[in-house]
Amino acid sequence: MSVVTDWPALHEHVIERFAAGWSDPHPHAWDDLLAEDVELTQPLLRHGRGRALWHEEALRLLAFLPDLRGEVLSWAARKDIVFIDLRLSGTAGGARLSVRACDQLTITTSGRIARRDSRFDPRPVMGTLMRHPSTWWPWWRSGIGPLTARRALLTSRPGAVADRRSQELR
């Protein structure tokens, strides 16, 4: 006996939870949505697998843009694939940043995100960084960039950044 998945209801649930996470983002805002071994591909952030990776990258992102918020502009879905048109906005060092992203989510029949592929043009972010020196320190301190050199200095052991940033946000 096969179980029929109510994809439209599942899509609505995923969009609702995804939007709620971006309306008040913190590293654990999407825990009820992300599969434990979620695969993540995202511009300017580390690619990889696992909720713990997302927690660490979300901490970095929020350290750079503490007032970051996301707004779901539109979405489309078919079976296990959901596309979300998203506007992300925040302030770094007094400079306002806004980018539009397209996330492609692969979801399970239980409504968990098994894979997230986020795409956006990073040139506006880099342009803001170049035009506003006040953004340099928040960008550097967050660990978002420059990725290789900066992260080597920040992490002496796996999870060190996440542990430190969790304490800073309390």
From TrEMBL:
UniProt xrefs under Pfam families: SnoaL_2
InterPro entries, alphabetized: NTF2-like_dom_sf (IPR032710), SnoaL-like (IPR037401)
Superkingdom, natural source: Bacteria
Domain SnoaL-like: 15-115
This protein's name: SnoaL-like domain-containing protein
